[in-house]
Amino acid sequence: MRSSCIVFVFVCFNTLQGQHYPSGMDLVQRAQSKYFQQQYEQVNAAWHLVAPRQLGQNKEQAEFYSLSAALRSNYPGVAKKQSLFQLDYPYSRKAATLPLDLAHFYFDNKKYGYALKWFRNVDERSINKPKKPRFNFNYGYTLFAVKNYTTARKYLKRVQDHPEYESDAHYYLGHIAYQLDEYESASSSFSKVTKNQQQEDLGYFQVAMNFKLGRFEEAIKRGEQKLKKAKGSLASDVSKIVGESYFNTNNYTAALPYLEAYEGKDGKWQNVDYYQLGFT
Description:
By secondary structure, the protein is mostly helical. The protein is elongated, with a radius of gyration of 28 Å.
């Protein structure tokens, strides 16, 4: 039985066992290495085969990495394991930082539902100042991703002047304002976006917002510029806005080709589309 365990550890841990059991500290260091390589199943497989007496003073650290790996792997019953750890080590600094670490982990892996769960468990007062911007942006974006726009705005505003997050914050603040029909605010936020790719992505929204604000000349200018590169449904939607902008400035001749280029919503025209085209 002992030899089979040794073989199993060797397979899971890649030479975890040698001629004798490694020390508790050696086990912790090896587990840490696997942990930071995100090989979480190997971390847990190793701990299940380690006798507690081997760990000694490293027991808390070992149990923390085992718990953290289990939480990242979404093992069944892991919530109970977390509660037991907190009872056993009520003053553990690692346990205190675990919700924030997990929130960032799930955020980085684009699992925003899981990330939200852990962000909500974070005690914001415990976050030191250098880590606050990352928390505010990641939490704000997570809330944006689940369409909790009001609360997302609160956190994104905290980093709208931060050098690392400024452009991203304004990009999503603009989208939030747009979704809430706050077009002046959206336009203001979008104008502060500095990243090239984001500026390109905003082309349609800039056209649409100017149209909704009654700035038809500006909508025409931005729309015609956007149409130089736009294709497919985007080109169709922008053509409609440009056409309606010309229509609203009584320039029906200029409106006609743009209105004709509109392919309709889901391939179908509405009554207003037929009216405008007939009028021109």
